[in-house]
Amino acid sequence: MPDPQDPKQVNNNDLRNAQFGGGLINADTVNAEQIGGDIVNNYNYYNEQPNKKLEIDWHQVSSSLLNEHLRLTTNPLTMGEGITYRTEQVYVPLGLVERKKQSRRKEDVSPEKGSELYHETEIKQTFEPQQFLEQVLRDRQSPQSKGKRIAIIGEPGAGKTTLLQQIAQWVLKEIEQSVVIWVSLTDLRLHDLESYLLEVWLQAIARTAGQAEASTQVKDDFVAQFNQGLVWLVLDGVDEMQALDDNPLEEIERQFRQGGLLQQARIVLSCRLNLWDGGSNALVSFDSYRTLEFSSSQQVEQFISNWFGCQPSAEIQTGQQLCVALREPGKERIRDLVKNPLRLTLLCFNWYLDNGNLPQTKAELYEQFVADFYEWKKSLFVTTGEQRRSLNAALGKLAREAIDKEETKFRLRQEFLCEYLGEPDDVDSLFWLALQLGWLNKVGVDAENWRKDVYAFFHPTFQEYFAALSIKDWHYFLNHIPENPSHSEASYRSFKPHWEEVILLWLGRKDVAKDIKEDFIKSLIEFEDGFWDFYGYQAYMIVANSIEEFLECSLRSKIIAIQESDGTEIQNIDEVIWKKLRPLFISFSSRTSSNIKFEYDFYKFLLNYLNLDNFNLTTKNLIELQRNPLLIVEYLKKDKNFSSDVLIKQDELDEIQYLVSLLNTSQDVYLRRITIINLSRAINTNPSNFACILINQNCINLNGDIGLILEWMIAMVTIEDSITAKTIIKLLVNDRSYLLRKNSVFVLKRCLATDVLNIIIKELKTYLADETYKEHSELRNDCFNILFHYAQKMTYPAFYNAWHSAAT
Questions:
Q1: Angle at 646 between CA 645 and CA 652, to 5 degrees
Q2: Which residues in 166-193 are b (16+ Cβ under 10 Å) and which e?
Q3: Measured at the alpha carbon of residue 105, what is the angle toward residues 103 and 109, in degrees to the nearest 5?
Q4: How far apart are CA 272 and CA 153, in angstroms?
Q5: What is the rounded CA–CA span in Å between residue 800 and residue 808?
Q6: What is the rounded CA–CA span in Å between residue 514 and residue 524?
Q7: How many beta carbons lie within 10 A of that of residue 130, not counting itself?
Q8: CA-CA distance, 801 to 761, in Å (whole number)?
Q9: Lowest mean pLDDT among 15-29, 416-430, 533-547, 758-772
Q10: Which residue in 147, 359, 553, 711 has its CB near the most CB atoms, within 10 A?
Q11: Pick from 356, 358, 340, 350: which is nearest to 300 by CA?
Q12: pLDDT classification of 465: cutoffs 50, 70, 90
């Protein structure tokens, strides 16, 4: 029977605040004989004559209630600004994936591609929207339940509810006699689902037909719809369902297990990823499908067009302007951020409120996003101001320490999170609160230990923003101790790429005083590293990139003047800034067109020499080869006419010398191909030996074509020891061949061994002297290029120690 204390249930025809199918009906304006304007007490849906049973068109009734729910559903965040729309008006179809198991996570991602944290790694099948509807729902092709038990899972704002609504409408339209009942599980409170169906949903139907209560005949007819397999229960938000043991999945499984009506129905439900992938998922009989994000800019722009198309006609142009703004350079993080439908909605909302403008700084944009996020969650999960402040502070400290110390900075281990937030299953912990709100989400399990969960922020950009909020003193980024960079109090985070975005967000904060920001900018401009300003240039680039975030910067006009100049005629600029830039303009001058043409012609020669014309390699393939010469071996392996597992003779005293000689004398094209593949293997076995052969000009001069081939193959060398490093440096210094010099630079930049890097830095720095520039400018530029490359890869203390290390 209805609970008189529960405003969601009806009693004595009092329909105020009664809820049917997830939507509120205002009984002050709708009488007891009419609900939603579509269901009326007439003979369209009900046919009752004196002494005859009441006939109900259950398909039509459920359709009307669903439509009323969709009409009443809107985003409470935007409704306060008078922005209302039906979900289907802005809906852009998204795909789904069926998973083999939880994603195994190992590698981190860059924030520019942060949405990849939520990509599945264990995919059984990917579905286009229509394919899912037809194959899984209509044709019942799902591995466990045969289309009877379906779960739609995903992170917050991934479009689960919207997809569920589209599924409900599709079922009503495409499956004959279907009875679709929408239930928002958060509204059940502690009542059973079956009780809700019989005592709320069914009673509402009866009252619209003029019955005070559903008669036995109506109840029997309703139960018959279940027994005939016509009923679809569309259950939204399992994670929002109240349960006595705080485990909604176990609670709803218990109700399913009791039998009755629920056993007979086809069920489609939605659930947050955190709960579904938790340690005790009782819904093992369900087939789960995870929602995909927007996969293309076209989908994003279609959503924007739909969203603004629901507003007054004058706003259509505003939406078009947002699409243009997102295409601009430098918007990579925002473009990735809005692949999630909720985050894209927040962007549209902010763009609308600001009349086609984003906040002046990214920090202000994310500040507004955070406020909107809490507002969006208010209707489902209320928090106090104190709770939000405590959580934001803890998330900031957590985010900062993860970026600073964790091996994977955006994939967060549960043990690490617990250090700062408490336990995830403790309802009084900040960890539990962060999961409920969706600031943190489970994204899989550790690739090496499936028992260990892996989490991520709603998007890595929010992690960077929270980290920026937690930093009070700019010395956290840069505290230069010139005489001892390894000192425990020294800090050179400014030169670590993963801190750049945090620095920009910190500079955009409104609560940091202008003079404090100016002090930081000054410390970057005046930074002296003591070795050709490799790090001084990086410091300047931070300043240059910051002008759009620190709009009041006193050097703004001068920096813009430098950026708009080609470096040859710069007037009225700061002498210190120009000192940083001068070596870069000298070193990174563009190559001449003749060199570029030579390189391109060489690759065409290589393809002809190896008779690869039948591979139909395009100009695009040639450009790929220029960027990575090692790809040629992959092209060679595509030939099915021969095996590469031949030629290597174990008794050869000098395998590389033998292969070079064979390549020089052979006229057979297939033998040449096999020889090059085997030579590529031998090069990695003894790279220094191969480099020594190239230094021997007599060997190269035996055959001009072979000489070119060998110069190209130096790119296959991997430097792992000091002998190889010194040999390649000798090759770079002694040879004037453009191709050989280019490939030597390529090889030297690929070295990863720390001890060998010290040798490379020590050797190459001697060629930066002015006399080298006067006699061999190309060599000096190449050495500068390599050293600058490693200055961007190595920490400042490590590079400092290598530069000043003793000769070996």
A1: 125
A2: bbbbbbbeebeebbbbbbbbbbbeebbb
A3: 120
A4: 6
A5: 16
A6: 16
A7: 10
A8: 10
A9: 15-29
A10: 711
A11: 340
A12: very high
Amino acid at 22: G
For residues 312 and 82, the answer to whether their CB atoms sit within 8 Å is no
Query: Token pair for residue 333?
Result: 């993080």
- Distance between first and last Cα of the chain: 89
CA distance 326 to 321: 9
**Amino acid making up residue 489:** E
Least confident range from 110-114, 242-246, 568-572, 792-796: namely 568-572
Q: Which residue has the tokens 């630079």?
A: 745
Share of the chain above pLDDT 70, in %: 75
Q: How many CB atoms lie within 10 A of CB 484?
A: 11
- On whether the CB atoms of residues 125 and 292 are closer than 8 A, the answer is no
Nearest 5 degrees, angle CA 53-CA 55-CA 60? Answer: 165
As a whole number of angstroms, the distance between CA 721 and CA 758 comes to 11
Quickly count: other Cβ atoms within 10 Å of residue 457's Cβ. 26
- CA–CA separation, 128 vs 126, rounded Å? 7
CB atoms within 10 A of CB 754: 10
pLDDT above 90 covers a percentage of the chain that reads 26
Q: What is the pLDDT of residue 591?
A: 38
Q: How far is residue 736 from each of residues 384, 608, 745, measured CA to CA in Å? A: 71, 25, 13
Whole-angstrom Cα Rg for the chain: 34
- Mean pLDDT, range 186-194, rounded to an integer: 77
Rounded CA separation 402/416 (Å): 8
- Give me 296's structure tokens: 């293309």
Q: Is the pLDDT of residue 599 over 80?
A: no
Alpha carbons 573 and 686: distance in angstroms, whole number: 52
Task: Write down the mean pLDDT value for the chain.
Answer: 78
* DSSP annotation of 452: S
Structure tokens at 806: 């003793």
| Ordered alpha helix ranges (H), 648-803 | 655-665, 669-685, 687-695, 697-701, 704-713, 722-734, 738-749, 754-764, 770-775, 777-793, 796-803
The mean per-residue pLDDT over the stretch 45-69 comes to 74
CA angle (346 as vertex; 345, 349 as ends), nearest 5 = 85
pLDDT tier at 27, thresholds 50, 70, 90: very low
* Encoded amino acid at 589, one letter: S
pLDDT higher than 60, residue 25:
no
- Look up residue 448 and give its two tokens: 């090496």
Name the β-bridge partners of 179. Answer: 231
Q: Are 114 and 410 in contact (CB under 8 A)?
A: yes
Report residue 140 as tokens.
Answer: 């019942």
DSSP string, 132-188: HIIIIIIS---TTTTTSEEEEEESTTSSHHHHHHHHHHHHHHHSTT-EEEEEEGGGS
Please give the pLDDT value at position 117. Answer: 56
Closest CA to 552 of 361, 357, 354: 361
Nearest-angstrom CA–CA distance, 227 and 742: 76
Angle at 547 between CA 542 and CA 553, to 5 degrees: 110
Extract long-range pairs of 133-140: CB within 8 Å, 24+ residues apart: 133/167, 133/170, 133/174, 136/287, 136/289, 137/167, 137/170, 137/171, 137/175, 137/268, 138/174, 138/175
Q: What tens digit of pLDDT does each residue of 235-286 get?
A: 988 887 877 666 788 888 888 888 788 999 999 999 888 778 765 677 888 9
* 490-530 pLDDT, tens digit each: 999 999 888 988 999 999 999 999 999 999 999 998 898 88
Residue count of the chain: 808
Give the Cα separation of 135 and 113 in Å (integer).
31
Q: What pLDDT was estimated at residue 23?
A: 35
Name every residue whose Cβ is closer than 8 Å to that of residue 273 and which is 6 or more positions away in sequence: 153, 154, 155, 290, 441, 442, 443
Q: Tokens 């993860």 belong to which residue?
A: 402
Mean pLDDT of 581-585: 53
E strand or H helix at 250: helix 248-257
User: What's the Cα-to-Cα distance from 772 to each of 64, 589, 803, rounded to whole Å?
Assistant: 84, 17, 18
